[in-house]
Design goal:
5 helices; three-stranded antiparallel beta sheet; alpha+beta
């Protein structure tokens, strides 16, 4: 590992820690030449499927782009970075479990929506509104209706905005 400060090739590992999920290793290093310290991370490089866009173009899966989309949906929501990382890992694991060389962006979007629905319902609605291109209030209402808890007889529970009772 080369030093990012002096480009020296001789660095020593001072400390090694595994992430909570066990999917990466954090290493603290010291350069023998300039004596500066820096941190590196090791992650398994996964062979994820190519993403087939709506226009037919094929692009490599980009974790940073997926993270940015999820982060945008979760903006100003009480979700930790660790929870976001865990969600990304679950999505990536699911993508690999398909065993496909190519996967449509629609299928990835559905996986993201399923994950966001479990993590934060507001983020789910935000993502769904962009992903499904809502054109009117009725589309929003339909998604919100999906999130309403069901009573034991299968009917949607009464909405909080109903005031005629």
């Amino acid at each position: 590992m080369r030093c990012p400060f002096c480009d020296g090739a001789d660095t020593q590992v001072i400390d090694t820690r595994t992430s909570d999920e066990g999917d990466s290793i954090r290493r603290r290093r010291r350069c023998s030449h300039c004596d500066k310290r820096f941190t590196t991370f090791e992650r398994i490089e996964l062979n994820l499927p190519l993403v087939v866009k709506k226009n037919g173009a094929r692009v490599e899966f980009d974790r940073r782009k997926l993270r940015a989309s999820i982060a945008l949906a979760l903006r100003k929501r009480p979700i930790s970075a660790e929870q976001v990382d865990a969600s990304l890992l679950r999505i990536e694991n699911r993508l690999m479990s398909f065993g496909l060389r190519e996967l449509s962006s629609d299928r990835i979007g559905e996986l993201v929506m399923r994950e966001l629905r479990k993590v934060d319902k507001v983020a789910y609605i935000r993502f769904a509104s962009v992903y499904r291109s809502f054109e009117d209030v009725e589309a929003f209402a339909d998604v919100i209706e999906e999130l309403q808890p069901r009573s034991s007889d299968g009917l949607a529970s009464q909405r909080l905005d109903d005031t005629d009772t």
